Amino acid sequence: MDEKDPLRHFKAQFLFPKIDGKDVIYFCGNSLGLQPRAVNDFLQTEIRAWAERGVEGHFTGDNPWVDARKRSKPLLATLVGAKTEEVVAMGSLTANIHLLLISFYQPSSTRFKIITESDAFPSDRYMLESQVRLNGFDPAEAIVEVKPRSGEHFVRTEDIVSLINAHKDELALIMMSGVQYYTGQWFDMKRIAHAGIQVGAKVGFDLAHAVGNVPLQLHEWEVDFAAWCSYKYLNSGPGNVAGIFVHEKHGRQPQLKRLQGWWGHDEKTRFAMEGPFKAMEGADGWLLSNDNVLGLAAHQASLEIFQAAGIANLRRKSELLTGYLEFLINSLVKDQAIEIITPANPGARGCQLSFLFEDGGREIFDELYQNGIIGDWRNPNVIRLAPVPLYNSFEEVYNFAKLFERILAKRDKG
């Protein structure tokens, strides 16, 4: 399979960490993606410009900093299925979602409820709770969680749609993950967005685990807004610049409520230093501050790799790679107290598999690490593994499974 893989050469474009001086198998791209080798050159270009031109770097050179974000826009648009003006790289994920909620969570005395998934990432829960309180409502009443059925680990789409319809007269917002961080479930975003539109609610997604992982069509699905980070599957560096999507039907409504900042003001008159605020069209109208030039340089290095590989090609390999990991693990754990809690349907997951252990999961995770496997541990007893198509191989999946088999055999004997 590796010999047939048309994407196999991309692995050499990334730097791999080592454990005790030895190369690792890195299955942790769902937490922090690997560093592209090109990042250093992209950063050095901007560092030299800073050294040689100082403040004039904002307006001179091949990539004037005043427009630094613009290089990434067409590449991001391709990744999330959007028009160029609907996306922009900016800020950080949590701050961006707060900015978007100011605009898109506009509750009334009768329409104030938010539907989200149970066990969402803590930051998402905190954001929704704080936005509800800011608007004078009680989170216990305003936030409605859709949960897996008893004995199941992921949420059925029909249950999401049913809950939307059940609260249709009180529903202001649907705010969910694109891909759930814990189970790896890829929600049916198209169907959820359609159900929200039908009842008059706004629909937004946190794409932290979806962007660069699964193919998206945000414009076509008529999603109102979305946000993502860039340090997981987008391999842009820890805590690096994030991004947003705002559908064009909202991006051309300057009267929309928002928190305003200098960089979101019309760029034609921005440096006149005069008011009143006139929002840029599209997602750029939510910008606050000038661009993070060094962060965008690292981001661009990675985005150009995605452009060369193609998200459709990555998705094809991802389905094969994750399916192979699933096949091998299922063949090993028939008599073990281990369960895959990620959907078995390839269309309902990205490249992550989550393994729930009845007991002893942490000891297994630690032994895997000691033997050169970097995955991710999540309490109370889950190991998450993400075979990333850009830099993981079928041989790595096989070698992991052989090691896992030895660890399980040793545990049985013990």
Mean pLDDT score: 96
Spatial ordering of strands, largest sheet: 6-12-11-10-9-7-8
The counted number of beta strands is 17
| Tally of DSSP helical segments | 12
What string, H for helix and E for strand, traces the elements in order? EEEEEHHEHEHHEHEHEEEHHHEEHEEEH
- The share of residues in extended strands comes to 5-15%
Return Rg in Å: 22 Å
Distance between the termini: 36 Å
The profile of the biggest β sheet is: 7 strands, mixed
| Outline | globular
Helix amount, in percent? 25-40%
Classify the oligomer: single chain
Low-confidence stretches: none
Instruction: Briefly note the structural class of the backbone.
Output: alpha/beta
Descriptive account of the structure:
The chain has helices at residues 39-53, 73-80, 93-104, 122-134, 139-142, 157-166, 189-199, 248-251, 293-309, 311-332, 361-370, 394-413, and strands at 14-15, 18-19, 22-23, 25-26, 35-36, 87-90, 113-117, 143-146, 171-177, 202-206, 225-228, 242-246, 338-340, 353-357, 373-374, 376-378, 382-385. The model has no long low-confidence stretch (mean pLDDT 96). Helix 1 runs antiparallel to helix 9 (293-309), helix 2 (73-80) crosses helix 9 (293-309) and helix 3 runs parallel beside helix 4. Strands 6-12-11-10-9-7-8 form a 7-stranded mixed β-sheet, with helices on both faces. Strands 13-14-17-16 form a 4-stranded antiparallel β-sheet, with helices on one face. A hairpin with a 2-residue loop joins strand 2 (18-19) and strand 3. The protein is α/β, with parallel strands linked by helices. The radius of gyration is 22 Å and the shape is globular.
